[in-house]
TrEMBL record:
Signal peptide: none annotated. Keywords: Hydrolase, Metal-binding, Pyrimidine biosynthesis, Zinc. InterPro entries: DHOdimr (IPR004721), Dihydroorotase_CS (IPR002195), Metal_Hydrolase (IPR032466). This is Dihydroorotase, homodimeric type. SUPFAM superfamilies: Metallo-dependent hydrolases (SSF51556). PANTHER family: DIHYDROOROTASE. It comes from the Eukaryota. The keyword Endoplasmic reticulum does not apply. One of its GO terms (cellular component) is cytoplasm. Gene3D superfamilies: Metal-dependent hydrolases. HAMAP family: PyrC_classII.
């Protein structure tokens, strides 16, 4: 007989966007509501977090809003980042990673993305996602940073996509911040002819995988996390690379396929959901209980006005209901018994992190009972920065979820 109530440790989300200003004040208290007590925070704000001091300041804001959550802070890799700053970040004890935004050139001219701090470091190919315009275009100049990361036991996080061939798509993803040449034959100095590799949303992740393999070959002792995998090819690649390479999987990619976001802006994210066989591969590896695949929601809130538009921003908002969503989805394909490992244990084990004093040992109880997901989560106007009040439409808005948090 299926269980109608389950108790497990609070979850760890190894990829979350908490934003800033009024949006931050709405989102951050929702982290614990979703059953999460450890959050690995992305630094792609405006301006991005590029120093230990900035990360500490941001962390203080987050802890004031949610003192019961452990926040692992990250840095955004920029040309100013040095091996010494990486060491300083780790010594500060607050950096969970460094976000790296980079434009990937064809593998025939190999370049590799450097990132660095504490549990991990994050890499975005430039132009593939929100606020990735501050990135850099070449990996190899950052090899000294990778070397320090390897020595310090840090983790490199990769947004595994190659930018689209279509310069207009790239510009849209950067929210019109690409710098094109006067005759429109290049992006940020990279000729379009070098970008044309038959790349689009649907194969951008698979095209990236040789870069992942090359990075692993060049730095075999460096822990690497391929973020928010969406394809069977990505699952197979991570499995093949051994114990120093892991992978995060989002809530929504365990449920969505291409048909669900084509024409539905609130399901549009980067990387996009792929084909049914890709979703099956994600579900299968979770059902297998593979310890190098764990939760990273990539929960990315945007005002509904930024989603319900001709050029919808990429991002799905799952923060307030992470464990209810996961329990419902895993239950649907017979993997409810894998929830604890996937959401609560495997990520912390790979990163080697612990929650701050007083945060460990907490549990959350879920009960099999249906309720409707709210249609929107509202945030107030911010007179200081001049933003209007608005709302964020969550994943599955208005839909029934089969599990509810009743304690924790």
């Amino acid at each position: 007989m299926p269980a109608n109530e389950i108790t497990l440790p609070t979850a760890s989300d190894f990829h979350i966007h908490l934003r800033q200003d009024a949006m931050m004040r709405m989102v951050v208290p929702r982290v614990a509501e979703g059953g999460v007590s450890l959050a690995y925070v992305m630094p792609n704000l405006r301006p991005p977090i590029t120093s230990t001091e900035q990360a500490l300041t941001y962390k203080a804001h987050l802890e004031k809003l949610a003192p019961n959550v452990t926040f692992l802070m990250t840095l955004f890799l920029s040309p100013d980042l040095t091996p010494d700053e990486v060491r300083r970040a780790k010594q500060a004890g607050i950096v969970g990673g460094i976000i790296f935004m980079a434009t990937l050139r064809p593998l025939a001219r190999p370049h590799h993305v450097p990132l660095s701090p504490f549990p991990g470091v994050k890499s975005y190919p430039r132009g593939v996602t929100t606020n990735s315009d501050s990135g850099i275009e070449s990996y190899e100049i950052y090899y000294p940073v990778f070397k320090v990361m390897e020595e310090e036991g840090l983790v490199l996080n990769l947004h595994g996509e190659i930018p689209s061939d279509d310069e207009k798509v790239c510009k849209s993803n950067l929210h019109e911040t690409w710098q094109t040449s006067p005759n429109c034959d290049s992006i940020s100095g990279i000729p379009f002819s070098l970008l044309h590799q038959d790349v689009c949303f649907m194969n951008a992740e698979e095209k990236f995988l040789p870069h992942l393999a090359q990075l692993h070959a060049d730095f075999p002792k460096l822990k690497i996390v391929l973020e928010h995998a969406t394809s069977k090819a990505a699952v197979d690649m991570v499995k093949s690379l051994g114990d120093t390479v892991a992978c995060t999987i989002t809530v929504h990619h365990l449920e969505l396929i291409v048909d669900d976001w084509a024409g539905q802006a609130h399901h549009f994210c980067k990387p996009v959901a792929k084909y049914p066989h890709d979703r099956k591969a994600l579900r299968d590896v979770v059902a297998e209980g593979h310890s190098r695949f764990f939760l990273g929601t990539d929960s990315a809130p945007h005002p509904h006005t930024a989603k319900e538009t001709a050029h919808a921003h990429a991002g799905v908002f799952t923060t307030p209901l992470v464990l209810p969503y996961l329990a419902t989805i895993l239950d649907s394909f017979g993997a409810l018994d894998r929830l604890q490992g996937f959401a609560c244990e495997f990520g912390k084990r790979f990163y080697g992190v612990v929650e701050k004093d007083g945060h460990g040992g907490r549990t959350v109880t879920l009960k099999r009972t249906s309720f409707a997901v709210p249609q929107t989560y509202n945030f107030e106007a911010d007179v200081v920065v001049g933003t209007e009040a608005g709302g964020v439409v969550p994943f599955w808005a208005g839909k029934e979820v089969g599990w509810r948090i009743v304690k924790g």
